[in-house]
UniProtKB/TrEMBL annotation:
This protein's name: Aminoglycoside phosphotransferase
Entries under SUPFAM superfamilies matching the protein: Protein kinase-like (PK-like)
Segments traversing the membrane: none
Pfam families (alphabetical): APH
InterPro entries: AGP_Transferase, Aminoglycoside_PTrfase, Kinase-like_dom_sf
Domain Aminoglycoside phosphotransferase: 41-207
Organism: Virgisporangium ochraceum
Amino acid sequence: MAGVDEVRVVVAHEERVTLRVGDVFLKVDSDQARIDVEVEALALAPVPTPRVLWRQPPVLAISAVPGTALGVLGEPSAASSAAWAAAGAAIRTLHEAPLPPWPGRSLDSIVAELDSECEQLVATGVLPADLVTRNREVAEAALRPWTPVFTHGDLQITHIFVEGDEVTGIIDWSEAARGDALWDLATLTLGHEERLDDVLAGYGTAVDVDVIRAWWSLRSLTAVRWLAEHGFDPAKPGCEIDVLKARM
């Protein structure tokens, strides 16, 4: 990394920090189990990913991927419909891969977290009770048995990079696990509902869109407090609170 004249903070909160130094990302994580998952998932995933350069706990160094992110939550995406479709095709490739050797979250644990978050959102006045109640009702459609697939687990719009109409890299694999395919599709399209048809065209198989909408509600309900407590703003236009309001 000789000659690097800039160090950029990509993400920083009490659990982890990601720095960009030239063409290298340095991830410092308080939970080495997350880094273990990321390293193994990068080796197993049959889609374009960063290269692991070195690891010296608590730091993981990975290469940058070419291209630009599909977009940013809360802002219109400049990526083409074909690029979004390519993202859907890449996700399908991941979901058809052999399952990773570690399990994902159980349905019971997801329900418990959701109910706890809903209770606290109302009790602390973070969100109106009717907004929480309505979205908890919508979220119920996601709370059903699913056939597990290899999921990325945190497939936010900023985690898929494209160049033109091609996917060049998918980053941030620390939450990869066996899970519901529709969770990944919902996470990618959260706040970008207008792009769902493009993603599904690339994904290439019929899905239950009501379950995707349910995951939008569930992800937003369980994220609002964490985001606010870690320096992010879920009330920005187009972000999690707007996603919840759209279900009313």
